[in-house]
Each structure stands twice: as structure tokens, then as C-alpha cells.
Amino acid sequence: MIRTKGEPGTGDVVHAVQHMRMIVREMRILKALGEEELYNEAKLLAAPYELVRMVAKTGKLPVPNFSAGGIATPADAALMMQLGAEAVFVGSGIFMKDGATPLDVQNNPAERAEAVSRAKAIVIATTHYDDAKIVAEAAEAVTGSMKGLAAAAIEESQLMQMRGR
């Protein structure tokens, strides 16, 4: 599997969108290259030639491409699927409100119901990402709202998505 980078727990999908667009754009570039150009591109990417050739031929990665980090709404999940993700990963952080812990949510029926409604809506939107009516209905079914955090407000040294670069 390969994961697009977004900032987990923020509800700010911008970075995941930018990364997904970059991956798709680079795969399209490979599709347009000739055989001799693919060999050079493999060297530039420091990737095995056969892998680059396979991506150029099929237009997709040989492993599932999933999107994670910043996905907090049914619309976010549907958008990532429309952009080319094959799956989305939503962490438990988006279900917490005002610093609540998973145990707080589990023990508070109202917060638990809200978390369940959001999870169900995201699953529906991911499954039916190409049907705007179903995505809208799923979004409307979510009770309450998540308190988001703009990734731009986080100090760069603290960003999860910057790790491993």
C-alpha cells in the first residue's frame, strides 16, 4: 500500500488533495513517455525500471493507493476517491470533540451516536463517491460537527506528514 500525506487529526484535507494530485500527475507523465524516456525517468526517480514501466503501461500503482490524514467529512472521502484514491483511512481523532478521549466518547451516548453517524456517512460516501446525491444525503445524516484545526497553524517541525522525508 501507499499512502497520500495529509495531517492527521486536523480535518484539513488540503495536503492530502495536493499529494494525491501530484501522484496522479506523475503517473500521467509516465504514460506519455516513450520506452527510452522511461529508463531515464526510472533513474531520476531512483525506482526500478520494471516498476516505472508497469505504472506507465497501466496508469496506476501496483499497490493500493489510500488516502489518510485530514479526511474528516463524507465530502472529503468522496473527493479523495474522485481524485484517484482506492481507499481512505479515517483515524479515531476526527471523532473526538474538544480533547475528548476514545473512552469519553464511548461513555457518552450523544458523542458516541455522533461518532457512529460520521463513520457511517464516510463509509457511504467512500462507497458511492461518484453519486453526488448519495454523498450529500450521507453528509446531511451526520449529527454534530467536528472541531477542525488548520494544518497551516501547526509548526512545521510538529507536522506528522513531514516525518520520513
State the gist of this model.
With 165 residues, the chain is mostly helical.
Tags for this model:
single chain; 165 residues; mainly alpha; three-stranded parallel sheet; elongated
Can you offer a commentary on this structure?
The protein has 165 residues and is mainly alpha-helical. It has helices at residues 14-32, 35-45, 49-58, 74-83, 102-107, 109-127, 132-140; strands spanning 2-4, 65-68, 87-89. The chain is elongated. The model has no long low-confidence stretch (mean pLDDT 83).
Write the layout of secondary structure elements.
Blueprint: E1 2-4, H1 14-32, H2 35-45, H3 49-58, E2 65-68, H4 74-83, E3 87-89, H5 102-107, H6 109-127, H7 132-140
Parallel strand pairs: 1-2, 2-3
Helix pairs in contact: 1-3, 2-3, 4-6, 6-7
Radius of gyration: 18 Å
How many strand units? 3
Query: Could you give the order of strands across the largest sheet?
Result: 1-2-3
Strand content: 5-15%
